[in-house]
Amino acid sequence: MVVMARWTARRAGENGYLVDVPDADPAQLADGVRGLCQERGIGLVEVVPGMSTVLIVFQDPRAVQIETLLAEVDAAPASGEVGTLTIDVQYDGPDLAEVAALTGLAEQQVIDLHTQTEFRAAFSGFAPGFAYLTGVPQQLRVPRRPDPRPVVPAGSVALADEFTAVYPKRLPGGWQLIGTTQQPLWIMRRNPPAVIRPGMTVRFRQVG
Amino acid sequence: MVFFRVLDPGVFTTMQDEGRPGHAHLGVPRSGALDQESYRLANRLVGNRSGATALETTMRGPRLLWDAQQFEDVSEPVWVAVTGAPVPVRINGRPAAFAAAVRLLPGEVLEIGTAVAGLRSYVAVSGGFVNKSPLRSGSTDVLSGLGPPALAVGHELPVGPAAPIPSIEFVVPTGVFHQPVLDLIPGPRADWFTPEALMLLARTAWQVSPTSNRVGLRLEGPALERVRFGELPSEGMMTGSVQVPGNGRPVLFLNDHPVTGGYPVIGVVTRASLDRAAQAAPGTTLRFRLRTALR
Question: Are residues B140 and B38 in the same domain?
């Protein structure tokens, strides 16, 4: 029997493969890869979901037949461990008026859209615990600021293009800041310390 | 606790170990010693377990006082070994051996000079440097800010309990190349570039820019032209990726690189080549040699 892999992989260096995932959730496929490799005793260094890819880094690529692995792996259904998170936000960001102007919405409409939407943590990057949340409605899509800020405070809730995110710590940044949360998003003593992890569903709730 | 006191931090000296792999999906770079082979050798020479925290210097190393004389119970000397970029090592002004375990008595000052070749030397101490270890690594990550700050005057660097010193009479120090050649496996996004771009990458003597750091080596040379334009949806980045931003000038990602990125990667250098890249000081000329991946 010939098993056709649903996904194709490109070589990424000595021990990595970049898998194109056009038709599934990369975060779920990443979980599937982790599960299967654990079952088979295949040593992994990293499994990194991207916007439409998964980067898999093996300890020893010679121990792996990537096509076979990809034929057998399935995008794991959203597991209970990953789950849903609600973040309390004060919509007091310095760019809220600017976002309203750019979108042609009233400020409260911006807030309503942001709190009524179920977002998905697609991938992480930029800083530890910084998750790119997708699912931003078309009406809410705004470009990055032309002049990035040297300092964006921790807890800032922001919009840029197709993404929304919460700054886990004080960072420079060019995103439009619409609010702030008091909830910590990176808790070092916890395992894992990232509160938002790829694959999670995230909602925002207006407070204050 | 016994410790070294920093009299002079050198140009830029950080704590490094094997880094914190396995957290890239949470936005955490691997970090860790850039020249892993030299780092491991330093630990071996002083009998440390693998993974012990050592110092990574940049160009000119620190001056450190072995501040143990105030403790009555500690009359023991401490052993240190310096590897990586060859550098003059002095104890209280007297020359000491490079790439060998050398003994330091309480109150003595260890001085790591300026590298005569390469860029980064590693200073291991018997017992290892002890610090806070977020995600089980004591490495300073200059991109994410995880790990201890770089050394500064007056810092106290605690040292853990030492294991016996192994009797190693001689080792061949890890090499540092004046014009390093890095093995590069094309992809995963080589198809975003003209076929000539890959040849140009391999033919060019690239110069390491002074704006390089632990995040990456910026390379000066001709622009690599793309056939595909537009944005690449953000994807995971390997350490060793040669990423090509809009201006066509490649950046070779070292250990503190961003875990995801939106510029195409024309090729990825091998693990062993990364050790050589770590020693490429600004102004160094380096070349790439195209390889195919084993499987």
Answer: yes
Provide the pLDDT for residue A193: 95
Interchain contact B270–A (C-beta under 8 A)? yes
CA distance B119 to chain A (A): 25
Say whether residue B234 is in contact with chain A using an 8 A CB cutoff.
Answer: yes
CB contact under 8 A, A50 and B235: yes
CATH code of the domain in which B285 resides: 2.40.100.10
B139 in any annotated domain: yes
CA angle B202, B204, B209 (to 5 degrees): 115
B185 interaction partners in chain A (CB closer than 8 Å): 11, 13-14
Residue among A119, A113, A172 at smallest CA distance from A147: A172
Among B158, B193, B217, give the residue marking a domain's end: B158
For B18-72, how does the pLDDT look when each residue is reduced to its tens digit (9 = 90+)? 999 999 999 999 999 999 999 999 999 999 998 999 999 999 999 999 987 555 5
Chain B residue numbers touching A126 (CB-CB < 8 A): 27, 258, 260
Among chain A residues, CA nearest to B260: A125
Does residue B166 lie in a domain region? no
Q: Which residue has the tokens 């204050």?
A: A208
Q: Say how many domains are in chain B.
A: 2
pLDDT digits (tens, 9 = 90+) for B182-222: 999 999 999 999 999 999 999 999 999 999 999 999 999 99
| Residue A33: closest CA among A4, A75, A2 | A75
Contact A124 B237 (CB under 8 A): no
Residues 6+ apart with CB under 8 A from B290: B184, B185, B186, B198, B202, B267
Helix or strand or coil: residue B157?
A: strand
For residues B114 and B42, state if they share a domain. yes
Claim to verify: residue B247 and residue B112 sit in the same structural domain:
no
Range of the domain at B272: 181-290
Tell whether B260 lies on the interface with A, counting CB pairs under 8 A: yes
Strand partners, B75: none
Burial B70-83 (b: 16+ CB within 10 A, else e): eeeeeeebbbbbbb
Whether B294 contacts chain A with CB within 8 A: yes
Q: How far is B21 from chain A (nearest CA, A)?
A: 6
